[in-house]
Design goal:
CATH topology: Jelly Rolls
Number of domains: 1
Order of helices and strands: EEEEEEEEEHHEH
Shape: globular
Radius of gyration: 15 Å
Number of helices: 3
Length: 168
């Protein structure tokens, strides 16, 4: 990459469902591998991503507005507008809007990894347009791996009555 990567707001692809809107901003190929970034708006109680981990990438979550719950390792953090959470490789994490408020996040993954096709596939599954099998075998390609049972249990117990199923 020899110049700045720029995406105009009007050019962002939006994947929308009843519970969330995911805006695909710049993927790894757009930034010379430096970063992949997207923006996600979650309606009150909506889950953004179920517990998972990345083995080679760091994920940064900046709360643009509202409030979100973030699993980071064994801790469930309540984050509000202006808060930043950085999750290093190997740490289980998840996120969702709090039960009583919408939440909007800017999410950056570094180093960048091509993930927009993954998000498109997840969106198709979440909206019922594709079967979950479209995600089979994609863990290594997207550096998106299953979380520990302990992380799953901790996340579920911290979010009683949430709206599971939307994953971004």
């Amino acid at each position: 990459m020899t110049s700045a990567a720029v995406l105009r707001a009007a050019d962002a692809v939006a994947l929308t469902s009843e519970r969330h809107t995911l805006r695909l901003l710049l993927d790894s190929s757009d930034t010379g591998g430096a970063v992949s970034t997207h923006r996600v708006l979650l309606r009150a109680g909506a889950e953004g991503a179920a517990p998972h981990r990345h083995l080679t990438t760091t994920e940064l979550f900046y709360v643009l507005s509202g409030a979100v719950d973030l699993l980071a390792g064994a801790d469930v953090l309540h984050a509000i507008e202006g808060d930043l959470v950085v999750v290093p490789p190997g740490v289980d994490h998840a996120f969702g809007a709090t039960a009583r408020a919408d939440g909007e996040l800017l999410v950056l993954v570094t180093p960048g990894i091509e993930r927009f096709d993954f998000f498109r596939a997840v969106h198709e599954v979440a909206t019922g347009r594709a079967d979950r099998s479209v995600l089979a075998g994609s863990d290594e390609r997207y550096d998106n791996h299953a979380a520990s049972a302990l992380a799953l249990d901790g996340w579920r117990s911290s979010r009683p009555g949430d709206a599971r199923g939307d994953q971004s």
